[in-house]
Fold Dihydrofolate reductase family protein.
Amino acid sequence: MGRLIYSMMTSLDGYTADADGDFGWGMPEDLELHRYAEELLHGVGTYLYGRRMYETMVFWETAHELPDEPPEMAEFARTWQAADKVVHSRTLESVSSARTTIARELDPDAVRAATETADVTVDGPGLAAAALAAGLVDEIAPIVLPVVVGGGTRFLPDGVRLDLELLGERHFASGAVHLRYGVRR
């Protein structure tokens, strides 16, 4: 049985994008962190995306073709390409990656079915808020970066109260920390 995991890079003050919508600070030049993130995705069968997150991640559909990219980038691209992707959008008409479908809203039954065979990630704070509200999230695993941005898009939505259990943590030389919390039911 798989888990539904919500994991994104976040600032120390809890934002996935700053007040201008920028998240460039969330992509550190840290190959150790990049390798680790790729390892985490090996057990993922499906990625659940909102439109904006999908438009960011679709880069990985062809990233392995870029010249002079480190091998870690190509490996991450292959891992991403091997998983199913469901883009939740009311406006997106088509997708430009293989193994990708569009859903107009989050379907709890479809999410539960996907977790029967493998882990599923929910990526993007808006979609994660809907999954949290529906009680679908099993694990919250922020990658906290050593930056404070002062406002913007929050990693966790207002109004959510959960009891969590620390499952693990990993520190990186760049100052990033990956935290894993299980949601207590």
Notes: The mean pLDDT is 93. The CA atoms of residues 10 and 144 lie 5 Å apart.
